[in-house]
Structure formats: C-alpha cells, structure tokens
Design goal:
The protein is mainly beta. The chain has helices at about 1-15, 20-35, 270, and strands at about 60-75, 90-95, 100-110, 115-125, 135-145, 160-175, 180-190, 200-210, 215-225, 245-250, 255-260, 285-295. It contains 3 helices and 12 strands, in the order ααβββββββββββαβ. It has a 12-stranded antiparallel β-barrel with strand order 1-2-3-4-5-6-7-8-9-10-11-12.
C-alpha cells in the first residue's frame, strides 16, 4: 500500500507539470524571493545538506520527491561489489504548506522505519539586519519491524518503537559561494538500556556548502554527540560513532543530484545521529546519492495571473 501511495503522488504530479514548466516556475520563485526586500535566499540548494536538514523550506504548494540511496561498505570488496550488493533506500515526500512551514513523510528500508517531519522557518537572514536564518526541525520515527519475543508476563508496547528528534537549525550565507550551519539536536529514544544510557542523546551538527560554479557545490556534514557517546546499537554489542559525510551537489533545472561518501548508512535522524556503527578510522565507508525532484501542486498566487504562453 505504501508503494502505491508514493506512485500515485509521482504520477499525479507528473501529469500536471512538465519538466520545462517546473524549471520555469522555479526560476520565477527564485526571482520572487530575491525581490522581497533584503532577505537572503538560497543558503542551501536543497532541504537537506546531506543527511541532516538544512534551513531551506519548499515554497508554498511545492512538492519534493526525494530518493536517498546508501550502499554497503566500500571495503567489502568485489564479493559484494564494493558495497553495491548491500544497499538501503529511503523514499520521501516533502510539501510546502506556506513559505515558512513544510511537512514531510518518508519510509526507510533500513529498520523498516516510517517517519514524519515538520520544519518551521523562524528567522530569515537579511542583507542589512538579521545575520542568520533560524529554523526548527522536528521528526518522529516509528519502526515497523515485528515485535520481539518477550518473557512471559511482560508486554511490548508500540511506544517502544518510537523516537523523536528536535533541532534548531542556525545558518548563515557568508557569500554566494559559502554557507555554514550549526544544528543543536536532542534525539529521544523511547527504549534504551537505561542502566547504562540515557533516553536523550544531545548532539551538535555542523555542515556547509561551497559552490564551485553555478551548478556544482561541495558539501560536508558532521554530528558530534555530547552524550551517549559510548552507546551500543540497541540489542547488539556494536559500538556507535559520530556521523561524518562529504559530498557534491549537482543542480540540473528542477533536479538536485547529490553524491556523497559517509560512515553512516542510515537515512533518518534516529539512525545516522545515534546509531552509526561504522567509522572513517576503520575505512568502513558508504557511497550514496540523493535525487530530489520538485513539482508544483498549487501555483503561487503571485503567478496565477501570468501565463507566459504556458498552460498552468
């Protein structure tokens, strides 16, 4: 059923907007944002830097279909085709309700996790005034794996499968080339080994983008855990590490194509912030990519009277 829902969204959006129209509309949206006074736009090109959320929101009425793919460890050798045989995927849909409010849904193959998110833009960087853009990002994840077997007399609660993420995203666009972001994060797991670890993991994320030219940018992202640094993956004896990713963004009209290398294979905050079991030190790295395709579901009201020779 979940796959059918995703397919319906894709097909219905594709039927109402061609690629040429999407590119044209995105151009108008960009020009509209730059003419809204001294507000700074396009701090990042996508709503995520690599794995973690950026301060960017979708425009009102805009739908973003995102495919995220992470392969297995590159050092697994030719037997596993250098990790390509052990891949995981996340499918996500984000939608801009207003210019400051965005919601999202997703499903990740790893841990069979569903997630829902909410992003609110609180402050916006101004050319002469506010020095940073500030947003709030909240996420709830639920594992859809079967309940484990528990001893007789015990109960396994649905709430045990839940995790929550709360983040404040603080970013500054220093120039047309350089943007940086810092992300204080609280990640809450409803179930942990409470004799050793806390339910709350506090972390600081840092990320940035440096544009090489109009279409290509280099990105990097790191999440440093302040607590639960020695936490094991739940139910295992596998130690966990801080997530570090580096990548390249390639923009082609309505698409943003991201290539990256990371020690994290997980694609949700629950996974890559608190449950990364590989490390750069051990050369246990994963190649991956994100593909983002933007569609317009509701035409912005400031453009409804403009046809430009196109059928909107």
């Amino acid at each position: 059923m979940r796959k059918i829902i995703y397919l319906i969204f894709i097909l219905s959006s594709s039927a109402t907007l061609t690629y040429a129209q999407a590119d044209s509309l995105m151009d108008m949206l960009n020009s509209g944002s730059s003419s809204s006074g001294s507000a700074v736009s396009a701090t990042f090109k996508a709503t995520r830097i690599i794995d973690g959320a950026s301060v960017e929101n979708l425009g009102a009425g805009v739908l973003d279909f995102r495919i995220s793919h992470r392969f297995g460890q590159i050092n697994q050798g030719a037997q596993n085709f250098f990790g390509l045989d052990n891949a995981t995927t996340r499918l996500g849909l984000d939608y801009g309700i207003t210019k400051w409010l965005m919601v999202g849904l997703g499903h990740s193959v790893l841990n069979k996790e569903d997630d829902g998110s909410l992003k609110i833009k609180l402050l916006r960087q101004k050319q002469n005034g506010m020095p940073v853009t500030v947003s709030y990002n909240g996420d709830i994840g639920v594992l859809t794996t079967p309940n484990p077997t528990v001893p007789a007399g015990d109960k396994w609660y649905f709430s045990n499968k839940l995790s929550y993420t709360n983040q404040i995203l603080i970013a500054r666009k220093f120039s047309e080339r350089l943007s940086l972001q810092i992300t204080p994060t609280v990640l809450h797991y409803n179930i942990v080994d409470s004799t050793k670890f806390s339910n709350n993991t506090f972390a600081i994320g840092a990320g940035g983008r440096f544009k090489l030219n109009k279409r290509i940018a280099v990105t990097a992202e790191y999440y440093y855990r302040l607590t639960n640094t020695d936490m094991f993956l739940t139910g295992t004896s596998s130690p966990t590490y801080n997530s570090l990713s580096v990548g390249i963004d390639i923009e082609t009209g309505g698409h943003v194509f991201q290539l990256m290398v990371s020690n994290s294979q997980g694609l949700t905050e629950r996974s890559f912030i608190g449950q990364t079991t590989d490390s750069w030190k051990n050369q246990a790295l994963h190649f991956g990519f994100n593909i983002s395709r933007v569609f317009t579901v509701v035409k912005p009201k400031e453009f409804r009277g403009k046809t430009d020779g196109k059928n909107w």
